[in-house]
Amino acid sequence: MPPCFDNADAVTFRKREKLVALLGRTDTGKTSAFNIMTGLSQRIGNRISSTTQQCFSHSNFIDTPGFGDTRGGESSHLSLVDFFISLSSGIDILLYFVRFGAMNSTDLDLFVDIYKRILSIEAYSNSCLVVTDYSLPNLEQINIDDNEERKHLLKQLHENDKYSYVLNKFDNRVIFIDISPFDYRRREISKGVIEKFLASFQPTKRFNCQNLQDAYRLLRRTQEMETRCLDFKTEIDQLKTQNQHLTHLYEQQIRHCRDLEESYQRSTKQLEQVHEQTLLTIENNHMITIEEMKRQEYRIRNEVKQVRNQLEEIERDMERSLTFNVASYIPLINIITNIIELNTKRRITQRIRKTLHTKKKGS
Ligand SMILES: Nc1nc2c(ncn2[C@@H]2O[C@H](COP(=O)(O)OP(=O)(O)O)[C@@H](O)[C@H]2O)c(=O)[nH]1
Ligand SMILES: [Mg+2]
User: Fold this and answer.
1) End-to-end CA distance of the chain
2) Which residue from 94, 50, 54 is spatially nearest to 75, judged by alpha carbons?
3) Which domains does the chain have, with CATH numbers?
4) What Pfam families is this protein classified in (predicted)?
5) 30 in ligand 1 pocket by Cβ < 6 Å?
6) 145 — phi, psi (to 5°)?
7) 72 CB under 6 A from ligand 1?
8) Which of 22, 111, 154, 292 is the most exposed place for a label (fewest CB within 10 A)?
9) Neighbour count for residue 130 (Cβ, 10 Å)
10) For 154-165, what is the HEC assignment?
C-alpha cells in the first residue's frame, strides 16, 4: 500500500488512533520499525549514514530523521519540530530508539538534549524506550512483564548509569526488538511486541506539540546561527585564501626587499671604496702637486739665483768693463792731457814768442 500522507494535516485525520512518533539517534532502527508497523518499505540506512531526511507519516506512525545526524544538522531537527508543531492534535506515544548494548555517554547526552531542549520533560510520560538489535534468543520472554530473564536484564541495565537514567524517566517502559533484515520470525515477534505495547500503554494525556514553540524558536535561532557560521566559515575560507595569497606576496616582497637591501649594501660598499679611492687619488694628486710645486719653486729659485749670479756677473762685468774703460782711457787721457799740455805749452810759447817778438819790435 502506498503511503497515504506524509504531512501533518493528513496525520491529524486519523485522530481516533494513537499517534506514534519514532525518535532517536540515526541508525537505531526507526525506519526498520516504521516499515514493519506500516507494511511499507522505506529506505533504511546502512549503519554508516542516515537515510531518512524528513518526517514521514503513514497510518498513525511518524518516522523521523535521526537526531545527531551530521548531514541534516539543526535544520533536520527544525523540520522535525516544525512537523510536530503542525500536529495540532499532539502525539500520543513517543518511541525512543536505542541499540542494545550500544548506549554510550554520547547517546545519553543526546537523549537529555532531545527531551530537555526540544520536546520538554513533559514528553517523558508519553515515551517508551525501544531497544533494537536485541540478538539474544529469548526475544519473546524478555518482553513479558514478570519474566525472570526480563527482571534480570532490567536489573543489569539499571546498573548501567545511562540505561538507568532513561528507564527511570520512562517508569521502566522498555521493549526489546530485533528487526533483523534476515530473520522474518524475529521481525514478526518484534512487530507483535510493539503492537502489544502500543495497545497496553495509555498515557494520561497527549503530548501537546504546541509546547515545542520555544524549542522551535531556539532551533530557528540555532539554524540562523548555523547559517551565519557557514557564511563566516566561507568568509574565513576566503580570507584564508586571501591571506595565503597576501602571505605569498609578502614573502615575495620580503625577498625583494632583502635583495634590494643586499644590493644597497653592495652599492654602499662600492661607493665607499670609490670614495676612498677618490680620496686617495685626490690626496696623491695633491701630494704630487705639492712636490711638483716644490720642485718648481726650487727650480725657480735656482733660476733666480742663476739670474742673480748672472746679473752680478753682468754687474761685475759692467763694473769691470767700466774700470776697464776708464783704465783704457787713461792713456788717451794722458795723451789728451799731453796734447792739451802741449797745446798750452805751445800757446804759451807762442805767446811768449809773440810777446818777445812784440818786445823786440818795440825795443
Ligand atoms: N539485526 C538488526 N538490524 C537492525 C535492527 N534495527 C535496525 N537494523 C539495521 O540498522 C540499519 C539502520 O536501520 P534504520 O532503520 O535505517 O535506522 P534509522 O536511521 O534509525 O532509521 C539497517 O541496516 C537495519 O537493517 C535490529 O533490530 N536488528
Ligand atoms: Mg531512518
Assistant:
1) 222
2) 54
3) 8-207 (3.40.50.300)
4) MMR_HSR1 (PF01926)
5) yes
6) -45, -55
7) no
8) 292
9) 27
10) HHHHHHCHHHHH
CA proximity to 20, closest of 54, 56, 49 = 56
Side chain identity at residue 273, one-letter code: Q
- Binding site membership of 27 for ligand 1 (Cβ less than 6 Å): yes
Total number of residues shown for the chain: 363
pTM, rounded to two decimals: 0.62
Q: Which residues contact 9 (CB under 8 A, 6 or more apart)?
A: 86
Q: Is the pLDDT of residue 79 over 90?
A: no
Amino acid found at 212? L
* Residue 180, ligand 1, Cβ within 6 A: yes
User: What phi, psi does 115 have (nearest 5°)?
Assistant: -75, -35
DSSP state of 116: I
Q: Percent of the chain beyond pLDDT 90?
A: 35
**Cell matching residue 248:** 605569498
pLDDT digits (tens, 9 = 90+) for 239-270: 999 999 998 999 999 999 999 999 999 988 99
**Which residue has 586571501 as its cell numbers?**
242
How far is it, in rounded angstroms, from Cα 26 to Cα 316? 142
